[in-house]
Specification:
single chain, four-stranded antiparallel β-sheet, two-stranded antiparallel sheet, globular
């Protein structure tokens, strides 16, 4: 599924609340709000923002991606928690779909 690329974040430090260290990487995207498959969705227009966990080794792949570009993301199970998928890269360039 193609997404509009918004950016990536990498945050690391120590939680003030728990005292535990954290290291989080995320990719931020926007997708067509109408494409969401929600049973309770009554109407949608434009985009909705989403974020996915990102493999820290994949951050460099996004360095040259222009914001709002149409991209496809490559997902794999996170080795630290195989029940959760994370983004490991960008697939072949997505094609813009033009309506008639």
């Amino acid at each position: 599924m193609p997404f509009r690329y918004l950016g990536v974040t990498h945050d690391a430090g120590v939680s003030k609340k728990t005292g535990r260290s954290y290291d989080m990487c995320r990719v931020l995207v926007a997708s067509d709000a109408k494409a969401a498959r929600r049973a309770d969705r009554k109407a949608a227009h434009g985009f909705e923002q989403d974020q996915f966990d990102l493999d820290p080794n994949a951050i460099g792949q996004f360095a040259r991606v222009q914001p709002f570009s149409l991209i496809d993301l490559q997902f794999e199970p996170n080795p630290n928690n195989p029940r959760i998928n994370w983004v490991v890269g960008i697939k072949a360039a997505a094609q813009e779909v033009k309506s008639a």
